[in-house]
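Example for tutorial group B:
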């Protein structure tokens, strides 16, 4: 006879989560490092009580904003290479919909996130309840249906026993390297409190370890054949290299074959910046070293990348008309993009098997020499734009240089959206795998501070440096207080260019007038002078505003010794970006305009599109 235990659905859920384990560096640890929770009437009585019962095994963390707590959970998963994760819960209504942006971010970036929003009453007796969204034509709809397009798996739990198959499916999605992404379990608030006799076996400890599929024999042979014929081979390292923990195998592969490597935003730090074959960033925000090779490459091995437009220069970058792409990817959807030879499999296993099949092959010496010479040339150019300066309004690049010199490549640096990702991708000299943490798949302003908190929780012994602009800071800064409350110290460098400087530059670059981006160009009664340092202090952080690059380096040295989150503010120039490197990006320019500047940019745009057609 099956042994059972009577629990509420919420108690069964939390007990199940606390029993899911993995092994990292030979040590067994929980898959779920905790649950972020902002309680409301839709989850406090059911799930809140259940979380209290397991608080020792499954810690509950209180946040200040639902989107932010989900960002922290996502960053934690990213920083642990998708090996561990967190859950987040909110009430039904605005608390739930606040998390939809974060769900989309996790979906785009293929990162595990368990969303547990409260939902309406399954029995519908008290309908409409507070915060309930009603559809005139569908009685089954709630606000949580917003999560459907941004969830890898969505389920609404309307009976307590439904949690059993739902959680089994949840774990397979969250831990599958190909399907990985957000899971939403919408928890009807009456069902959270309903009891059921659950089988005790449901709560047995379960071990989840990474699946590493090896490539198909036929696909492997085709890829090896293409690489053996290459005169100008190139590797693009994407985030899949990091998540597969394949950096050593990547280094072995390219060193044996003499093949240069370039990196996407997600793949940056796959190899240390100092590696002679690492050409660093590729694409729109790429280095001259990487992009020159990309324009000529005849065989491109794309490892663990979804080939986003910033990587490919909107498909104008790879101009060799005889080029062949090989897509080494765990996800078939990505492996076969743009007529690539698919090589479906784990990045680490795939690189090992490619290396075995390419024994005695080496790229022509002239190609490898060109790569190494291009890298040296780029390093000289980068050193110029990041060097110390006494200007009153430094560039983003000069601030990056100061952070690099002071914090070093050992620090974990984190950023997202705006102008910083472009400058960081080109200029930051990453060290260990995962030390460069960019959210540029969804390019979500407001990720940075919450993401820094999540990264610090994953890497408590690292110095975590958050690079953020004033625009992102104003969007979402509340988790400064959370970081102080939790004793999780992060270092925040706030570059104040008084507006949305990146989009202002794009506006100007497409012929538009300066309008509604910088504060001075927006409609307002008062032009604000915001004291960001004072604001950060009010949230519990140590903070200061500096007036020069030299002062910033001194402040960063002090920050390393501080015992809690530190915010350093510096005014920067909104108009300067690094001209060296980079490539075209397809941003459609109006075909008709009253502005002569727009008409001139449209002509240039039409010429650029021709280049893309020829190159793709």
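The residue assignment follows.
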């Amino acid at each position: 006879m099956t042994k059972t235990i009577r629990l509420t659905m919420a108690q069964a859920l939390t007990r199940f989560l606390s029993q899911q384990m993995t092994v990292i560096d030979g040590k067994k640890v929980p898959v779920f490092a905790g649950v972020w929770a902002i309680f409301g009437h839709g989850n406090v009585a059911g799930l809140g009580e259940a979380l209290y019962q397991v608080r020792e095994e499954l810690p509950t963390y209180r946040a200040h904003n639902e989107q932010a707590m989900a960002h922290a959970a996502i960053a934690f998963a990213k920083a642990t290479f998708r090996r561990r994760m967190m859950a987040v819960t909110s009430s039904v209504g605005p608390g739930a919909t606040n998390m939809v942006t974060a769900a989309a971010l996790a979906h785009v970036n293929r990162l595990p996130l368990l969303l547990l929003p409260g939902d309406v009453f399954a029995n519908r007796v008290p309908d409409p309840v507070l915060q309930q969204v009603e559809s005139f034509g569908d009685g089954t709809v709630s606000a949580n249906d917003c999560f459907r397009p941004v969830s890898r798996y969505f389920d609404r739990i309307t009976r307590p026993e439904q949690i059993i198959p739902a959680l089994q499916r949840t774990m397979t999605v969250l831990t599958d390297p190909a399907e990985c992404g957000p899971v939403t379990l919408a928890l009807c608030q009456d069902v959270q409190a309903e009891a059921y006799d659950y089988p005790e076996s449901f709560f047995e400890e379960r071990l989840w370890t990474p699946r590493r599929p090896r490539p198909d024999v036929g696909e492997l042979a085709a890829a090896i054949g293409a690489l053996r014929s290459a005169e100008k081979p190139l590797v693009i390292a994407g985030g899949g290299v990091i998540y597969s923990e394949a950096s050593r195998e990547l280094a072995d592969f390219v060193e044996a074959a003499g093949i240069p490597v370039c990196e996407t935003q997600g793949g940056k730090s796959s190899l240390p910046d100092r590696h002679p074959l690492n050409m660093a960033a590729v694409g729109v925000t790429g280095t001259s070293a990487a992009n020159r090779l990309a324009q000529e490459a005849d065989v491109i091995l794309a490892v663990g990348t979804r080939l986003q437009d910033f990587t490919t220069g909107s498909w104008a970058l790879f101009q060799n008309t005889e080029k062949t792409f090989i897509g080494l990817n765990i996800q078939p959807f990505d492996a076969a993009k743009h007529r690539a030879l698919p090589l479906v499999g784990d990045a680490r296993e795939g690189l090992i098997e490619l290396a075995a099949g390419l024994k005695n092959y080496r790229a022509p010496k002239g190609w490898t020499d060109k790569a190494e010479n291009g890298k040296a040339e780029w390093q000289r150019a980068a050193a110029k734009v990041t060097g110390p300066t006494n200007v009153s309004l430094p560039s983003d690049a000069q601030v990056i240089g100061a952070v690099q010199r002071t914090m070093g490549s050992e620090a974990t640096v984190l950023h997202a959206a705006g102008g910083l990702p472009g400058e960081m991708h080109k200029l930051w000299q990453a060290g260990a795998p995962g030390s460069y943490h960019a959210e540029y798949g969804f390019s979500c302003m407001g990720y940075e501070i919450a993401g820094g908190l999540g990264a610090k929780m994953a890497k408590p012994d690292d110095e975590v440096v958050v690079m953020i602009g004033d625009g992102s800071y104003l969007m979402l800064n509340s988790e400064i207080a959370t970081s102080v409350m939790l004793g999780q110290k992060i270092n925040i460098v706030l570059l104040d260019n008084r507006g949305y400087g990146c989009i202002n530059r794009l506006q100007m670059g497409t012929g538009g007038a300066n309008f509604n981006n910088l504060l001075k160009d927006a409609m307002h009664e008062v032009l604000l002078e915001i004291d960001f340092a004072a604001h950060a202090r009010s949230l519990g952080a140590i903070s200061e505003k500096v007036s020069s690059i030299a002062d910033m380096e001194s402040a960063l040295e002090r920050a390393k010794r501080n015992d809690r989150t530190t915010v350093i503010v510096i005014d920067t120039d909104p108009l300067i970006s690094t001209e060296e490197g980079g490539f075209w990006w397809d941003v459609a320019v109006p075909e008709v305009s009253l502005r002569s500047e727009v008409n001139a940019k449209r002509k240039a745009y039409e010429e650029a599109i021709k280049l893309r057609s020829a190159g793709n």
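Residues 365-386 form the longest helix (22 residues). Compare this with the pattern of hydrophobic and polar residues in the output above.
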